[in-house]
Write a structure and sequence with these properties.
The chain is of the alpha/beta class and 612 residues long. It has 20 helices and 26 strands. The strands form five sheets. The chain has an eight-stranded antiparallel beta sheet, covered by helices on one side. A six-stranded antiparallel beta sheet has the order 5-6-7-8-12-13. Strand 15 and strand 16 form a beta hairpin. Helix 7 runs parallel beside helix 14 and helix 10 runs parallel beside helix 14. It is globular and about 80 Å long. The N and C termini lie close together (11 Å). 55% of the residues are buried.
């Protein structure tokens, strides 16, 4: 959510900043801006409502020279999306420019105090309050920019990632973070800054992940320096990026979402690789903490959105395979529910980005109360990866499309391996079961490749349902969360209202909606509840509803009832959500394309939700 790019030392900072903003477009935004310090000591700030392309057009006739600059894509929180509220924002005398991700919760109090001291505000944003505060402290006390930044950050309450330039210090760029990510890229003669690594990968593979309450002093002529908000030295820990530019490009596909759907055989191969050996699951996070998992009293899964759906599936897997009591909570509700968490509990935090603000806060609360924290995320070096006691990366590569696809299947696959590994450890699954399920997990990439052959038939099917106004998605058991995920995908990118529901609960309310204008998607693979789902299909058909059914290949019974069937390969019940998700992703994608939607950047949504 929102994006920051910074650069110092490159010959043409503007081109690097704009390219970086394009790399960050997937995060979701509604305006963009850039601040450049040129060789004449002039600080030029240009910003525009709309896309990065709109900003580029606005800048065509402007002075965009300079080797130091910061840039931003904004997702509106305080004030409507317009040119004035767009970042960067400047202090009263125009010497400082700042970009900011996050939320300053006490901005109203600070703004009122600054107004009493003569500050006038141009925007409605909390960000302008922060830069005005820094400017006021610097001017009134005569301190350095760094000292003013430190003092201001100690006064604000909330989350932030900031980049700051000072017209009077043309050789220095400042960055700071708390609960919102920032990555510094160390190049040859230039240093770069980004909300994540995607704007940096083209220029360097050497990065430093800034930690909470740290400030980076990025200089042209001196090595990177990091201090904490209380002025103690911080460690500069340089990591090597394992990311390529090709992973950030569409590779011939019309949209990132379709590319990422079709990447899933390869991403699941990377997710599984080295973790199943000789018919057993080997996860270092479990192996290194065997006593924690062996004696666990309870597992609490916290997540948001698609990751929450993966967590619901994970609950069924832990119950069936590891026989541990499991609760699944929306992280946003958990953090404010005064949860009962004790030593002996394991809290599993699931997040693609590893930066989801609610999930991170829920995790921190659980750790404070004595729980063992386990992370399941995709981004190496992310906040959740650093805040947990242990964890497992899903290793599916950068996910650019806002609607999650390969991250969801990676999360479910990791949760299946984790549940199986814990079941092995606790002796709740037989060696034969372990061997069978482990072999099926290893076979998933090939099974997904086969399932993707449904693409053409799903494209044709989508044309029939492009202009309906509502969808109902139904599933049972481990595939009830799959129904929720299918409905979410359709809502996110097509803007069609869709609802996921347990199929057995349909008769307790949603059946009133069934008519010939409401299509129902059933996730109905061959499993222990297959006969029950057949009964639910009959109930829909008896009321004139149309049925799209995802079935196991060779299922002739449902084929005689449903209006349309999509056959998927047979897999063990615990893995069927991974396979069933593929046609649901394709259905949502093709309907959205036929409706002319912006599939990769749907309205109002952001990829990484780093604010409440």
């Amino acid at each position: 959510m929102c994006g920051i790019v910074g650069c110092i030392g490159a010959e043409n900072a503007y081109s690097i900043l704009i390219k970086g903003l394009h790399r960050l477009e997937y995060r979701g935004y509604d305006s963009a801006g850039v601040a450049l310090l040129n060789d004449n000591g002039e600080l030029n700030v240009y910003k525009s409502r709309g896309k990065v392309n709109d900003l580029e057009r606005f800048c065509e006739s402007k002075d965009c020279s300079g080797s130091l600059g910061i840039a931003h894509t904004r997702w509106a929180t305080h004030g409507e999306p317009n040119d004035v509220n767009a970042h960067p924002h400047c202090c009263q005398n125009g010497t400082l420019a700042l970009v900011h991700n996050g939320t300053i919760e006490n901005y109203a109090v600070l703004r009122e105090a600054l107004e009493q001291h003569g500050c006038s505000f141009r925007s409605e944003t909390d960000t302008e309050v922060l830069v005005q505060l820094i400017g006021y402290i610097k001017q009134s006390s005569g301190c350095s920019t760094l000292e003013a930044l430190r003092e201001a950050l100690q006064q604000v309450v909330g989350a932030y990632a900031v980049a700051l330039v000072d017209r009077e210090q043309p050789d220095c760029l400042y960055a700071a973070r708390k609960s919102s990510p920032l990555v510094i890229g160390i190049g040859d003669g230039a240093t770069f800054l980004g909300s994540d690594a995607s704007p940096l990968v083209e220029f360097t593979d050497k990065v430093v992940y800034l930690k909470d309450n740290e400030i980076a002093i990025i200089s042209r002529s001196e090595p990177l320096k990091v201090i904490t908000n209380d002025n103690t030295p911080g460690k500069v820990d340089i990591k090597t990026l394992k990311m390529s530019v090709s992973q950030l490009e569409k590779g011939g596909y019309p949209h990132f979402m379709l590319k990422e759907i079709f990447e899933q055989p390869d991403t699941l191969h990377d997710c599984i690789r080295g973790r199943i050996v000789d018919g057993k699951v080997l996860l270092s996070g479990v192996r290194d903490n065997e006593e924690v998992f062996r004696s666990a009293r309870r597992i609490i899964i916290v997540a948001c959105g698609t990751s929450w759906h993966a967590g619901l599936i994970g609950k069924r897997l832990f119950l069936d395979l590891a026989r541990i009591p499991v609760e699944v909570e929306y992280a946003s509700e958990f953090r404010y529910s005064n949860p009962v968490v004790n030593r002996g509990d394991i809290v599993v935090a699931i997040s693609q980005s590893g930066e989801t603000a609610d999930t991170l806060a829920a995790l921190q609360i659980a750790r404070e109360r004595g729980a063992f924290a386990y992370g399941v995320c995709n981004v190496v070096g992310s906040s959740i990866a650093r805040e947990t006691d242990s964890g497992t990366y899903i290793h599916v590569g950068p996910e650019i499309g806002v609607a999650s696809t390969k991250a969801f299947t990676g999360q479910v696959t990791v949760l299946a391996m984790l549940a199986l590994a814990v079941g092995q450890l606790r002796g709740t699954v037989s060696a034969e079961q372990v061997k069978e399920i482990a072999a099926s997990i290893k076979a998933l990439p090939g099974i997904i490749r086969t399932t993707l052959k449904l693409n053409d038939s799903i494209r044709h099917l989508s044309g029939i349902y492009t202009y309906v106004h509502n969808f109902l998605y139904l599933g049972r058991g481990v595939n009830f969360p799959t129904a929720l995920e299918g409905a979410l995908k359709l809502k996110e990118i097509s803007y069609i209202h869709a609802e996921g529901y347990p199929a057995a609960e349909m008769k307790h309310g949603p059946i009133a909606l069934i008519d010939n204008e409401l299509p129902t998607v059933f996730i109905a693979p061959m499993d222990d509840l297959h006969e029950k789902v057949i009964s639910n299909i009959q109930q829909v058909k008896a009321r004139g509803g149309s049925v799209i059914a995802i079935v196991t290949e060779g299922d002739e019974t449902i084929a005689t009832m449903a209006d349309h069937t999509l056959e998927i390969p047979r897999v063990p019940e615990c893995l069927s959500p991974v396979v069933s998700a593929i046609p649901l992703q394709l259905l949502a994608y093709h309907i959205a394309v036929m409706k002319g939607r912006d599939v990769d950047m749907p309205r109002n949504l952001a990829k990484s939700v780093t604010v409440e």
